[in-house]
Amino acid sequence: MSTTTHITIIGGGFAGSEAAWAAAQAGVRVRLYEMRPVRQTPVHHTAYLAEPVCSNSFKSNLVTTASGLLKWEMRQLGSIVLACAEEVAVPAGEALAVDRELFAQVVTQRLESHPLIEIVREEVTDILPDRPLIIATGPLTSDALAQAIGRLTGSKRLYFYDAVAPIVDAMTLNMERIFVASRYGKGDAAYLNCPMTREEYEAFVDALLSAETVEPHDFEEPRYFEGCLPIEEIAARGRDALRFSRFKPVGLIDPRTGKRPYAVLQLRQENLQGTLYGLVGCQTRLKWGEQKRVFRLVPGLENAEFVRYGVMHRNTYIHSPTLLEPTLQLRSDAGIFFAGQITGVEGYIESAMCGIVAGLNAARLVKGMPPVTLPPDTMMGALLDYISHYAGKDFQPMNANFGLLPEPEPPVRDRHARIAANVERAQRSLREFLDGIQR
Known about the structure:
Elements: E1 6-10, H1 14-25, E2 29-33, E3 57-60, H2 66-76, H3 80-87, E4 89-90, E5 95-98, H4 100-112, E6 117-120, E7 133-135, H5 143-153, E8 158-163, E9 167-169, E10 179-180, E11 191-196, H6 198-210, H7 231-235, E12 263-269, E13 276-279, H8 288-295, E14 306-308, E15 312-317, H9 320-323, E16 329-330, E17 333-338, H10 348-366, H11 379-389, H12 415-438
Parallel strand pairs: 1-2, 1-7, 2-6, 7-17
Antiparallel strand pairs: 3-5, 4-5, 8-15, 9-13, 9-14, 10-11, 11-12, 12-13, 16-17
Helix pairs in contact: 1-10, 2-10, 2-12
């Protein structure tokens, strides 16, 4: 197995880390560039690779969910992100959630100790001449490199805004007003629930709608991705918008009253020690002082101390349908791969998935083998097919979801039966695919 030719990767986030691991595990040398800590981003706090910033949850582990199926498929391909996440998981019911810093630390240690991976801590400001080259700089691509990518692709870059939720100190929560439960009693009782009466909810919405926000620059038009919409944007759609979405009380009973609350704000454990809790679904662009004032109106958060306030940042992604093959290769230069959120997938695990595929295919190029395309009836293949073949006018980032998969044959009308059929077909298809490329 030759290791005389190396793969170059720009970006040490989820996608870049997975790409480096996949290629190195295939026996190919990797040079991974990460600009932190030489240059930090507006939202990262450490120099660790694969540092989560928006949420510590990687969504459901159940294979009957789109996210769970995606994880199952990635595990079959040796995902380093999921292996490390399971080592530092924190209670989150059916979801896979991690201690943020410990997770990033474990990923970094694993990559640094691999004999075929070299990590270079410096900013890359232009498209390197190396081939294969994987660009996995994520949604916070630096301005200089984003401009270089624009020149490379010949297209105007796209962007949307992503908002990060606040995190509070668990010791400052008023547990006399909070109850512990998971929705419908499924999984471990891993969420803290702040129940709100109608009057409390109305007061919160009033304060939220009147609070000052951090506005984007004049030259930047806000384009929000629906999945990370700031909480104040949702509230502006109608007084009940929050309690029918992020603050939905369905499936939760307050043990103190024996009744379902009017609305509920949930908190999710952020670290193994259980000392930090994130406000679920509360991504925001409120000014920091306003965040403290508004969120302290929620029962149980009256004296909450914020260890991290919500912040807003720009996410950058390319128009993949006109630029990329489902192998993640650039159509105009087969030696260049893109991976992660910059391709138009949305979510940590979706980004990591791209890294696996880019790393696998880049390694195959080094070995003189053709790149592979994942079957479109797998969740991985369906996502890659979406970003490379989307035919609509308004291409937007996409999470894993069963709507991406082709209908089972024969068609199944019952929703649960259809999901089961899709899962069975995806698992069978991926096994056959792996058998084929390993021969």
